[in-house]
Write a structure and sequence with these properties.
alpha/beta; three-stranded parallel beta sheet; disordered C terminus; about 25% strand; 7 strands
């Protein structure tokens, strides 16, 4: 079998810095109007992962504070798949190693490996969701996706 020629591709993102993380987040979230969706007493899941988001404790604390100020009852759900040994305790420990604890974030961390089967993608792959996030009234996803990109080049005659 003849394989297509491959070359690695690297994407370089703007490396600008945000000095006032809390202020910038507050301005942007407030300007988006998203907080108008929050009703008093809503349980809102906020995802926290292990993908190397710089200053993630500050980001989470700010988002959680804005949700609380809007009347929500926010909580944190680990969103990291098999990291932390693929166990609820391991994921909670991984978040704690990043400075993300219930006490530090002023919101409980609900770590569970229990999921809800949402169905299948058009390709037939199963789609699962954390049970605590599924049962929430809303979800705020804070994430970073890491991947390597490759471009496949095939000569067409």
């Amino acid at each position: 079998m003849e394989f297509p020629r491959m070359i690695p591709v690297r994407q370089v993102f703007d490396s600008g810095r945000v000095e006032d993380i809390e202020g910038e987040l507050t301005r942007r979230i407030t300007a988006s109007g998203a907080l108008a969706q929050v009703k008093p007493g809503m349980r809102v899941a906020v995802t926290a992962g292990s993908r190397g988001i710089h200053n993630i404790p500050r980001i989470l604390r700010t988002v959680i504070g804005l949700l609380r100020d809007a009347g929500a009852r926010p909580f944190i759900v680990p969103a990291m798949g098999s990291h932390g040994g693929g166990s609820a305790a391991g994921q909670a420990e991984m978040l704690a190693s990043l400075g993300i604890t219930g006490e530090a974030m002023e919101a409980p961390v609900l770590s569970s490996m229990e999921t809800v089967d949402l169905g299948r993608t058009p390709d037939g792959a199963p789609v699962y969701m954390d049970v605590n996030a599924f049962n929430a009234d809303g979800i705020v996803v804070i994430n970073r996706i890491k991947f390597n990109s490759w471009i496949f080049i095939r000569k067409i005659d």
